[in-house]
Specification:
The chain has 416 residues and is of the alpha/beta class. The relative contact order is 0.10. The chain is 27% helix and 24% strand. The chain has 2 domains: 210 residues, P-loop containing nucleotide triphosphate hydrolases (Rossmann fold); 167 residues, Ribosomal Protein S5, domain 2, CATH 3.30.230. It contains 11 helices and 18 strands. Strand 2, helix 3 and strand 3 form a beta-alpha-beta unit. It has a 9-stranded mixed sheet. The protein is elongated and about 75 Å long.
Length: 416
C-alpha cells in the first residue's frame, strides 16, 4: 500500500521573535566611560601607525613573512608596556621556556608585570582574557589555535574564524587590548579567511627583507587612525630599533657613479631619500633580461619602452638591472623619473650631477607628471644637504627645483 503524505496547508510557519527592542541613544548622549588611555608600545613610530598606541578593547592583527621579526617586536612591545601595565604573552608555537630565552636576549626578562603562557586552546585563552586581569594580551599565533567543539585541524577556515570570534568577544567585554599574530601565504597575503581581517580593528603588515635592510610596518586597516603612516625599523643584536634618520642611513655608503640616482620618495606620509641603481649590459643571449629588486617589473618594462620610443636610447639588445638600495619596495609613481634617468645614465655611461635628487611620474608620451607632497620631498632633500632637485612642474617654483616637462629634456640637460 502507498503511504499517504501530509498535504501542506500553504501557510508558512513563522518563528516567534525572541529579540528585545533596542534602545538607541542620540550621539550626544553616548558616553566614553569604558575607554581608557591608549597603551604606548615604546616605539614612537609604531604608536603613530596605530593612531596613538594600542586601544583598550581593540584587537590588532600583525602579519608578516616567517623570520622577519614579528615575535621579537611583540616581545619588546610587551616588555615596554609591562613598565606600567600587566601583560600576558601566549604562544601556541613555543614553550614558555623558549620565550624566556628570547626575552633574556632582548632584556625583557626583568619585567615582573610580564607573564608567559603556552596554549593552543582558543577557549582557554578567551576565558583568560575575559578575567580582565591583563591590560594587554599577545597571542602568537591565531593559526595555531583551535576550539574544542570543532573537529577540524588548527589553521583551517572554521578554526581561524571561530577562534578569533571568541577571542574578540572576550577582548571587548574585558576592555583588554589583544594582539594576534598572523601567518602569510607564499604570495604574501594573510593566511586564512578574509573575514579575519574584517573582524579585527587593526591590520598591520610587517614587510622587508628577513636577512637585512629596513623593516617596514604599515597599516592595511585601522579603525582608530589613518592608514597612510609607516614605521621603519632595523634589526640589531638587541632586537628591533627605530631608524631615527632613514634617509641618511640609506645614503651613507653611496658612491656617485653612472647608473646611480637619488630618489625623493614617500613611505606613507614620511619623505625618504633612496638610491636607485641601474646596470645596463649588452645581452649575450637572444632575449634581453630585465630584473628589478624593490621595483615593479611591469613598470620597469613600460619605462624601458618609453625610453626607446621617446629618446634616442637603444635598449632592445641590453640586459637591464634595477636595485632599490636598503631593501625597500617602492610603490610610488613618482619613482618613474629616477628609474628612467638611472637606466639612461648607465646606458650612456654618464653621471648625474652631485647633490641632485629626482622625482616625477613618467607618462607614455614621455611627459613628466606632477607628484604628491612635492614640498615635503624637497624639504627632506634640503635637510640632508642636497643642492638641486629635478622635478615636474610645481605650483610654486623655487631656485632649488629644476622643473622639467618631458623625459628627453631631463636626460639632455642633466646627464653630464
Amino acid at each position: 500500500m502507498l503511504e499517504s503524505t501530509p498535504v501542506s496547508s500553504g501557510k508558512s510557519a513563522v518563528a516567534k521573535s525572541r529579540g528585545k527592542i533596542l534602545k538607541p541613544k542620540k550621539l550626544s548622549q553616548v558616553e566614553l566611560d569604558n575607554v581608557k588611555d591608549r597603551l604606548k608600545t615604546g616605539f614612537g613610530e609604531l604608536d603613530t601607525v596605530l593612531g596613538g598606541g594600542l586601544m583598550p578593547g581593540g584587537v590588532m592583527l600583525m602579519a608578516g613573512q616567517p623570520g622577519i621579526g614579528k615575535s621579537t617586536l611583540l616581545l619588546q612591545v610587551a616588555a615596554n608596556v609591562a613598565n606600567k601595565k600587566t601583560v600576558l604573552y601566549i604562544s601556541g608555537e613555543e614553550s614558555a621556556g623558549q620565550i624566556k630565552l628570547r626575552a633574556e636576549r632582548l632584556g625583557a626578562h626583568r619585567q615582573e608585570a610580564l607573564s608567559l603562557a603556552s596554549s593552543t586552546s582558543a577557549d582557554d585563552i578567551a576565558a583568560t582574557i575575559a578575567e580582565s586581569q591583563y591590560d594587554l594580551v599577545i597571542v602568537d599565533s591565531i593559526q595555531t589555535l583551535a576550539l574544542d567543539e570543532i573537529t577540524s585541524a588548527p589553521g583551517t577556515v572554521s578554526q581561524i574564524t571561530n577562534s578569533s570570534n571568541v577571542i574578540i568577544r572576550a577582548a571587548k567585554s574585558a576592555n583588554t587590548s589583544v594582539v594576534l599574530v598572523g601567518h602569510v601565504t607564499k604570495e604574501g597575503s594573510i593566511a586564512g579567511p578574509k573575514v579575519l581581517e574584517h573582524l579585527v580593528d587593526v591590520v598591520l603588515n610587517f614587510e622587508g627583507d628577513r636577512y637585512g635592510g629596513f623593516k617596514i610596518i604599515r597599516a592595511a586597516k585601522n579603525r582608530y587612525g589613518a592608514t597612510n603612516e609607516v614605521a621603519l625599523l632595523e634589526m640589531v643584536e638587541e632586537g628591533l630599533k627605530q631608524v631615527e634618520n632613514p634617509s641618511a642611513a640609506l645614503l651613507a655608503e653611496r658612491q656617485n657613479t653612472d647608473g646611480s640616482v637619488i630618489l625623493a620618495t614617500l613611505e606613507g606620509n614620511r619623505p625618504l631619500l633612496v638610491e636607485i641603481q641601474a646596470l645596463v649590459n649588452p645581452t649575450h643571449f637572444g632575449y634581453p633580461k630585465r630584473t628589478a629588486s624593490g621595483f615593479d617589473i611591469n613598470r620597469l618594462n613600460l619605462l624601458i619602452a618609453v625610453l626607446e620610443k621617446r629618446t634616442k636610447l637603444k635598449l632592445s639588445e641590453s640586459d637591464i638591472y634595477i636595485n632599490v638600495v636598503g631593501g625597500l619596495k617602492l610603490a610610488d609613481p613618482a619613482a618613474d623619473l629616477a628609474v628612467a634617468m638611472a637606466i639612461a645614465s648607465a646606458a650612456a655611461s654618464r653621471k648625474i650631477g652631485d647633490g641632485v635628487v629626482v622625482f616625477g611620474e613618467v607618462g607614455l608620451g614621455g611627459e613628466v607628471r606632477s607628484a604628491i607632497a612635492s614640498d615635503r620631498r624637497l624639504d627632506e632633500a634640503k635637510k640632508l644637504g642636497f643642492t638641486q632637485a629635478i622635478t615636474p612642474k610645481l605650483r610654486k617654483g623655487t631656485k632649488f627645483a629644476r622643473q622639467v616637462t618631458d623625459l628627453r629634456s631631463a636626460l639632455v640637460d642633466y646627464l653630464k
